[in-house]
Amino acid sequence: MSDAERTLGLDEMHAAMASWGGELAVGFLPFKGDIEDGGRMQRPTTAWAEEYATSHHAALVDAHACCAGQAGLVLADDPGHLTAAGNFAAGAAIAAHVLALGLR
Question: Which site among 7, 8, 45, 73 is 20 to 30 Å from 51 CA-CA?
Fold first, then answer.
């Protein structure tokens, strides 16, 4: 997906959410390296997401390190995606950030 496609998709969500007072947050889910190494992997979309969040006054929710060192959170046959447990752990971390930011 190109940056232009990402921008278009988030712009459409932002417009739809504005109709009911919702707020947009942009975020990072953990990748295999984040979980296994406990670090913050750099990825091609990091700079784009940070710029989009700033220019659109959207919260930036970073869940890179939410699940560091936890086993069984990445699909063995598809390491680019999280297992159900991984999605649950990342979702819980993101929910905590969203609640702390007071987003609706």
Answer: 73
